[in-house]
Amino acid sequence: MIDRRAAGWRRRIREIGAAATAGGAPVTYGIIALCSAVFLVSPLSGFNPSYGSADALLAAQAGYFERWGVIPSRLLDGSAHAALTPLTALFVHGSWLHLLGNLLFLYVFGAMAEERMGRTEFLFFYVCCGYFALVAYAVVHAGSDQTLVGASGAISAVLGAFLYLFPRARVTSLFPFLFFLPLRFPAWIVLVFWFVLQWLAARDAGSGPGVAYLAHVAGFAAGFLYAWGRYRGGVRVKAPATATEGESQP
Asked: What is the Cα–Cα distance from 50 to 57, expressed in whole angstroms?
């Protein structure tokens, strides 16, 4: 006898995947476009000659980070500008690699999460979890003057929510120790593996800041807990997906 519940889950994830890949994720694609546009006009891209070159360009980059990024030692000083920096920092990236790495993960996992949550809720979720992740890092490193930028905390929250909402979806992943071969794995394996790496890296990072692994861990945990609290008792898509964003149907 056909398991009607399993059939319903399969039908549901096909509907979500089809809607997402058909351009039904305007918030996700809008965030990607906004982050890209912000980077292109910034002094980091190299495309804006108004910032000059050599020392002038380096000074412009430092000033840009200081204005729009989170500086932990200043975050809790009570100023309105400092309180807004965890929001502005979500759309600022430090290099092409930083930008493309973040946007790739958002493209792969964001569209289906948005389709499941809805446009307004997903935007609220993305901004609030990203803000929380940056603040959590800044509080732990309260004495640091190193600037923190990037959407990694918010995107980590998307990954955490995706793990809860689509625990058996399959994604194509590239692992360096497997010679970057494109292999398909259940999303939960990829995401749990990623989370463990971030957790271990955060523990080994020492007392000083560097790569904001703690922001990644905080964002991932916030995203998973939000999805658990918001959708607990509802329909979780447990049936394996035939494809995810960025893949073609087999």
From this structure: 9
If you compute the radius of gyration of the chain from its CA atoms, what whole number of angstroms results? 19
The span from the CA of 165 to the CA of 111, in Å, is 13
Q: Work out the burial of residue 128: count CB atoms within 10 Å of its CB; fewer than 13 is exposed, 13-18 middle, 19 or more buried.
A: middle
Distance CA 162, CA 169 (A): 9
Distance CA 215, CA 202 (A): 9
Residue spans of beta strands (DSSP E) within 13-165: none
* Strand partners for 172: 184
Say how far apart CA 233 and CA 185 lie, in whole Å. Answer: 26
State pLDDT tens for residues 61-77.
888 988 999 999 999 88
Residue-wise pLDDT tens digits, 97-138: 888 888 888 998 899 999 999 999 999 999 999 999 999 999
